[in-house]
């Protein structure tokens, strides 16, 4: 379970949100919503430890993240708006490199299975620079199935994905939640009817008198 309370963050001397809180339990999908500039990416980056939160309390499995950030870090997969993949490496090489960064020995069969699942069968050894934007996004999404972590933190995961890919990604999110996983994501995507998703509007935590730019 991920518990957040009284979170606050600023950019360029402007408070984006304050007093923000939520609870994410096994099986939950939480969509962080709000207009451009309201702090959606900042919130996710702050939770992932990539951007400093000025105030608040973040707990994972009943323990404050600040007490053992490595334990929390080992339980989530972060996919930012930019994939962070190396264009000169193939999808397979990128997954191997990322596995080693996480302290895991890459297993070729697992990585090939993950790439096949995201629709990159036959492209495993093609340099990423030669793939389309959608295929690059799929290569990033393959990390979800290699790392196999309970919490997915995803910033605009539907970007550059075609209609078939959108349906597949919705299915992966639903499947992960159905298996007791948790998803925290930003997206402007409208989920299909019947998709169980909660919403957190960051703009509701904007200080009085502040306006979006």
Question: What does this protein look like?
Answer:
The protein is of the alpha/beta class and 213 residues long. It has 2 domains: 1-75 and 149-213, P-loop containing nucleotide triphosphate hydrolases (Rossmann fold, 3-Layer(aba) Sandwich); 90-148. The chain contains 7 helices and 9 strands. The chain has helices spanning 40-47, 69-73, 91-101, 108-117, 133-141, 143-147, 163-178; strands at 2-11, 14-24, 29-33, 55-60, 63-64, 76-79, 151-155, 182-186, 198-201. It has a 5-stranded parallel β-sheet with strand order 6-7-8-3-9, sandwiched between helices. A hairpin with a 2-residue loop joins strand 4 and strand 5 (63-64). Helix 3 (91-101) crosses helix 4. The chain is globular and about 55 Å long. The two termini are 34 Å apart. The mean pLDDT is 92.
Key features?
five-stranded parallel β-sheet, alpha/beta, 213 residues, four-stranded antiparallel β-sheet, single chain
Give the amount of beta strand, in percent: 15-25%
**In the CATH classification, which architecture of the largest domain applies?**
3-Layer(aba) Sandwich
Quaternary state reads: single chain
Structural class: alpha/beta
Helices and strands, in order, run as EEEHEEHEHHHHEHEE
Annotated CATH topology of the largest domain: Rossmann fold
Radius of gyration: 17 Å
Mean pLDDT: 92
Distance between the termini: 34 Å
Query: Mind telling me the CATH class of the largest domain?
Result: Alpha Beta
Helical percentage: 25-40%
Specify the biggest β-sheet. Answer: 5 strands, parallel
How are the strands ordered across the major sheet? 6-7-8-3-9
Low-confidence stretches: none
How many beta-strand segments? 9
The name of the CATH superfamily of the largest domain reads P-loop containing nucleotide triphosphate hydrolases
Please report the number of helical segments: 7
The geometry reads as globular
Tell me the count of domains: 2
